[in-house]
Design a protein that fits this description.
This protein is an all-alpha fold. The protein has a domain of about 160 residues: MetI-like (MetI-like fold, Orthogonal Bundle). Helices cover about 70% and strands about 0% of the residues. The chain is built from 14 helices and two strands; from the N terminus they run E-E-H-H-H-H-H-H-H-H-H-H-H-H-H-H. Strands 1-2 form a two-stranded antiparallel ribbon. Helix 5 packs parallel to helix 14.
């Protein structure tokens, strides 16, 4: 459907070439190799599992879902009292009429809707009401890579620490070490980020002086926001890993593997750990979508110029095109993450059939 409602062709994802890793600029050709290899592996997996029709059906459902999401959001924004240019100090009527005419807000709502949908089909997300002479595509192109960079760091932190903690707790089940790991994970889940962030800033930035307080200008600026953003998913992943390992360890096929005389390492890594990943996969779909678009709270607290700050400001300013653009990007990431997770189910557990 043209540019898939525009936001896949706006250049936001091509702007990923601007993402750096620990302040090292990743060359464009490495991104091409990475995405090329990823797409080739994905295509090979789909063909091998005979999932082409299934994937095409899911893509069609995704387009319909995005259309419904855009429609409902569009109608709700127009139904709210007030408008994007209503201020405490009212504008002169002739100036307000000129502004409304410029952005076609003086047209009937169904004309505005069809104008917006036709723009999406052509890859145009509209012009921001707040940021003069800037369209939504340019704003997302500048801010989305920063949110993705923060999200990737937080995901790496959550998975690289959470899974080993869950494995360690499961192997030490019922001991003091198990309880300590679970207390740590529950604390990470229970404490909100707007409470943890000021404490970390006060202790690690002001008292110890190890890290920078805000902005996004180097490695010293990355540590605090990625740790605060990754603590909650880390705790959930640790708990899911522990419970998954303990549940799978009691399965019949694990007892059969032990009866055959297989070593504990083979049983653990080939049978237990692989199947224990299924609950983590279920949690990963919304986690990846939410964390890659950035946490609004974290980006606000640490003054990170990502998509979260623009989205919050767009809601405050009634910037309709920017609200819709950010929502569609988030929705697309959520849909893609769910599709990838559904396909990975069949890989991690052959008993599950994707149909």
């Amino acid at each position: 459907m043209g540019a898939v409602f525009g936001f896949l062709s706006i250049g936001s994802f091509f702007a990923l070439s601007g993402i750096s890793f620990l302040h090292y600029k990743i060359p464009v050709f490495l991104w091409i190799i990475f995405f090329g290899s990823l797409c080739a592996s994905f295509a090979w997996y789909i063909i091998k599992k005979s999932l082409f029709l299934y994937v095409m059906g899911r893509i069609f459902e995704a387009l319909i879902t995005l259309l419904i999401t855009a429609t409902i959001t569009f109608v709700l924004l127009r139904a709210l009292p007030g408008g994007p240019f209503d201020r405490e100090k009212a504008l002169p009527p002739e100036i307000k009429a000129h502004i409304n005419a410029k952005y076609h807000l003086d047209e009937p709502i169904h004309f505005q809707y069809f104008r917006y949908i036709s723009g999406l089909m052509k890859g145009y997300l509209g012009e921001s009401y707040k940021y003069t002479d800037r369209n939504v595509s340019d704003i997302l192109k500048d801010s989305l890579p920063i949110s993705v960079q923060l999200g990737v760091y937080a995901l790496l932190f959550a998975f690289l620490i959470g899974i080993p903690c869950g494995v360690f707790a499961a192997q030490k089940g019922g001991t003091l070490w198990d309880r300590l790991v679970m207390i740590f994970s529950i604390s990470g889940v229970s404490l909100p980020s707007f409470v943890i962030a000021p404490v970390f800033i006060l202790f690690f930035a002001f008292y110890l002086g190890w890290f920078e307080v805000a902005l996004w200008e180097g490695t010293a600026f990355y540590i605090l926001p990625l740790v605060v953003l990754g603590l909650r998913p880390l705790g959930v992943i640790a708990r899911l890993t522990r419970s998954g390992i303990l549940d799978v360890s009691r399965s019949d096929y694990v007892r059969t593997a032990r009866a055959k005389g297989l070593s504990e390492n083979v049983i653990f890594y080939r049978h237990i750990l692989k199947n224990a990943f299924l609950p983590i996969l279920t949690f990963s779909a919304p986690l990846i979508a939410g964390i890659l678009t950035g946490s609004f709270v974290i980006e606000k607290i640490f003054a990170i110029p990502g998509m979260g700050g623009h989205f919050v400001n767009s809601v405050t300013n009634r910037d309709y095109p920017l609200i819709l653009g950010g929502l569609l990007v988030y929705s697309s990431l959520l849909i893609v993450s769910n599709l990838v997770v559904d396909l990975l189910y069949a890989y991690f557990d052959p008993r599950i059939k994707v149909s």
